[in-house]
Design brief:
single chain, 11 strands, globular, 7-stranded mixed sheet, 4-stranded antiparallel sheet, mainly beta
Length: 115
């Protein structure tokens, strides 16, 4: 199995920045695509961004101008750089890692945007 573990969440002021990481461990050979979802309080889970093994990225429309997804294949680590954060960005951020047509999920890292 692959076990993704998110880190980097926390409390940040509106307009601030935060960089999330997702490190994959376990059976980490031949990991393919990776990405992020989030879930805000009282809302459904929302797709944030996706990146292919070759580094091609795409985003939810509302995140394109502020978020950047990247990966370090040598470290089996996924990143999400979040800038100009707003209170509505508050939520639990989950990463996923794809291998052998299976999507593995992390347990999430909490992001809170508040003064």
């Amino acid at each position: 199995q692959v076990q993704p573990v998110e880190s980097g969440g926390g409390l940040v002021q509106p307009g601030g920045s935060l960089r999330l990481s997702c490190a994959a461990s376990g059976s980490i050979r031949d990991i393919y695509d990776m990405g992020w979802y989030r879930q805000a309080p009282g809302k459904q889970r929302e797709w944030v961004a996706h990146i292919t093994n070759s580094g091609y990225a795409n985003y939810a429309e509302s995140m394109k101008a502020r978020f950047t997804i990247s990966r370090d294949n040598g470290k089996n680590t996924l990143y999400l750089q979040m800038n100009s954060l707003k209170p509505e960005d508050t939520g639990l951020y989950y990463c996923y890692v794809e291998k052998a047509y299976t999507r593995y999920w992390g347990q999430g890292t909490q992001v809170t945007v508040d003064s």
